[in-house]
Design goal:
39% of the residues lie in helices and 34% in strands. It has one domain: Nuclear Transport Factor 2, Chain: A. Strands 1-2-3-4 form a 4-stranded antiparallel β-sheet. It is α+β, with helices and mostly antiparallel strands. The chain contains 4 helices and 4 strands. This is SnoaL-like domain-containing protein.
Length: 116
Amino acid sequence: MKLAKKSDAEILSIADPIMDNLMDASTAIDYERHVRDFTGRLKSVLSKERLEWICQDYQSTKGFFTKREFVAIFRRPESVAVVWKQGFSKQPGDFVAEMVLVQQDGKYLVDHVMIF
């Protein structure tokens, strides 16, 4: 079944563990673990040095990730975009966590991810 045809619950059962790993690996600044579920395209645009800089920057200004709350799933023919409300330990307010998932060779992979 195509990813976009799955229910919200089915998509979240795939997306949540992937996002958990991304956030844990980002906190630990562990490049290999962070990119393990990335598409080749996404790996090619995020170097180890760039990830280290991004992580050090957000950790010094915003702190660490706290509560994440599901907001919506946007379905496209070949992908889904999952959006959560995200908190940080040092900075009040709500941020957006988003991830675009695709299915390639029977695997679910991240083709875009951002916290803003």
